[in-house]
């Protein structure tokens, strides 16, 4: 994928996740994915990947924090 596609997907993922948190409505993330998919499959795939990566990172960081807390660090 192009640098533009990756950059745009990352920016949209950050914005969508921030809006989902601010509004309490996680549905916005999927709505954007559907919108992108209707126009650009490449951008939709990059966006989906960016969302999955950010969510996985959040879960991993939470697990590491819980582990550190459990051992008193």
How would you describe this structure in keywords?
single chain, 73 residues, mainly alpha, 3 helices
Please, could you describe this protein's structure?
The protein has 73 residues and is an all-alpha fold. The protein has one domain (3-70). The protein is 88% helix and 0% strand. It has three helices and no strands. The radius of gyration is 15 Å and the shape is elongated. It starts with a helix and ends with a helix. The model has no long low-confidence stretch (mean pLDDT 96).
Quote the beta fraction: under 5%
Separation, N- and C-terminal Cα atoms: 41 Å
Q: How many helices does DSSP assign? A: 3
In helices, the fraction of residues equals over 70%
Please state the average pLDDT score: 96
Name the helix and strand elements from N-terminus to C-terminus, one letter apiece: HHH
Low-confidence stretches: none
Number-wise, the strands total 0
Major β-sheet profile: none
Structural class: mainly alpha
Total tally of structural domains = 1
Q: What Rg do the Cα atoms give?
A: 15 Å
Q: What global shape is seen?
A: elongated
Briefly, what is this?
Helix content is 88%, strand content 0%.
Helix-strand layout with pairing:
Layout: H1 3-23, H2 27-39, H3 41-70
Helix pairs in contact: 1-2, 1-3, 2-3
């Amino acid at each position: 994928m192009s640098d533009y596609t990756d950059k745009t997907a990352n920016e949209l993922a950050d914005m969508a996740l921030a809006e989902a948190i601010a509004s309490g409505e996680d549905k916005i993330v999927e709505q954007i994915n559907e919108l992108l998919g209707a126009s650009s499959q490449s951008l939709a795939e990059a966006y989906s990947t960016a969302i999955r990566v950010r969510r996985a990172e959040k879960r991993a960081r939470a697990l590491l924090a819980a582990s550190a807390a459990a051992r008193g660090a």
